[in-house]
Amino acid sequence: PKTEDKQETELEWDGDDKETSDEEYHQLLDEFSSAEDEEAEQLRKFAKEVKRGRKAKKLGLHASEIKEKAVDELDDSDGETERWKSLENRFDKKAAVPIFSLGMAFRGNSQFNKALVKYGLKTSRHLVFVKDEANRVRATCSWKGCKWLIYGSKTSKRDNKLVTSNGIAKQYYNEIKDNPTWKVELIKKAMLRDMCADVSISKCKRAKSLVLKAALDSMQGEYSRVYDYQMELLRSNPGSTVVVCLDPEFEEKVFERMYVCFDACKKGFLSGCRMVIELDGCWFKGATNVATKTYDSWYWFLGLLQKDLNINNGGQGWVIISDQQKKHTDKELQKKWWCCAKSPCRELFNYHRTVLAQETPEGAQDMMKTSPEHWSRAFFKLGSNCDLVDNNMCESFNNSIMDARFYPVISMHETIRKKVMVRIQENRARSERWVGTICPNIFKKLKINIQRSSKVLDDFIAPCFTISEYMKTYDHVLLPVEGPGNWPISDMPRPKAPTYVKMLGRPKTERRMKVGEAPKGTKLSKVGTKIKYRLCGKFDHNARTCHKNA
């Protein structure tokens, strides 16, 4: 046969050149084929066991119980096992005349409707769909006296009544607590993925509210231990400044604000940092209320900061950058103004100001109401080693602590403290591997113009940009803090959490859009659209306030 000739050509033998007889040749082939058949049979049995285990897991049975029910181990003519037979009574769409039975399963209402139409045409019945919805279908025969009726509904195996809101809250307590903005639609998908349970949106909402309420109760406990936390910070990091203030407007002891300046950060800033301070506020995203950026809050904060940094002589030599720039609706005028702000010399400043005056003379005059010494790089004094005209570093830091802003006061401080502690250690370890005298980023900028100079480049670099000064900044260690169970107990009163006034509507977590700023999405907002009540045809009211429904 051809198969034997093919096998004969593929076989290669080692040894002497003696010819092999036909009997020995066929005997060798039989040995090889029998070994392959045994190996294939073992693989088939192993595959059956794996499939049987999966089927038993789905049905909640033992694998031995479905051995004869779910598997047909009879081989066909080709010696291959047949596919698994489903235990479900499924509809046969290939049947000439559809046959219905109690408990028959369909893929959906569309397949069920098509089967009924096909059945009515084949049996000459006039079927009427009494109810045709996504979850249920009911059809009857319109002939007089005929009691033929069929009803089908959606019966999902994923509807597990044992999955309650308390169970969901326990399952995803840490996830919801760490991310309070987790949408209920995503919780529903997580339940379907992890527990194979299709729960309702309302049940997910109740579970989320239970977790947030428990987190709020624990938050109240955190505010009552702020003085204990203050004592622990002062004990673990001597030399630090930790101030806790209560709200004087309430008779009860209510937490108002807290100031923390670690000794390692204080010494590192005074040792190697430039005399530059950037100011910006950030809002809590949690369940408590915080004070706005008022003169009183800024005066209190800057007064403590002045003492820690030893700022004397009215701040002589210090650079304070605040976030006071406002966006302009005209992008072209905005670009021209930034050209004035970032001009490196006064000649270029005057040129860009002239270009701006040609476009808007009033804008150029209004720009000079504030002295350019405060906002233009061309008028900055020498010695500060700072040419920043924006507050982007503060915005970057606020973005890095975005998750911490959802936490209560102690959890928030601990999250920020750990970030700062890791940052100090990483920067210290990185600077120890540097070679030379200048920091790498500064040296990269200097290499661009390295061919223009014939002198020693180190003489043109300010001391604050050297590696030695950089290492002084991160030379101090931020010491670890004990857990809440080991904190000292303070004799101060136990303050309560700040009051929270719930506003109407959904709480907003994103910033407000500027005037003229393009929206993020592609849909037009309906803010400001007048809604008309369809029954009376008048505006500014709905069904509850309409006089016709009174």
TrEMBL record:
InterPro entries: Transposase_MuDR. Pfam families: DBD_Tnp_Mut. Residues 1-22 are annotated as: Disordered. Residues 101-157 form the Transposase MuDR plant domain. Residues 10-22 have a biased composition (Acidic residues). PANTHER family: MUTATOR TRANSPOSASE MUDRA PROTEIN, POLYPROTEIN, PUTATIVE-RELATED. This is Transposase MuDR plant domain-containing protein. The lineage of its organism: Eukaryota, Viridiplantae, Streptophyta, Embryophyta, Tracheophyta.
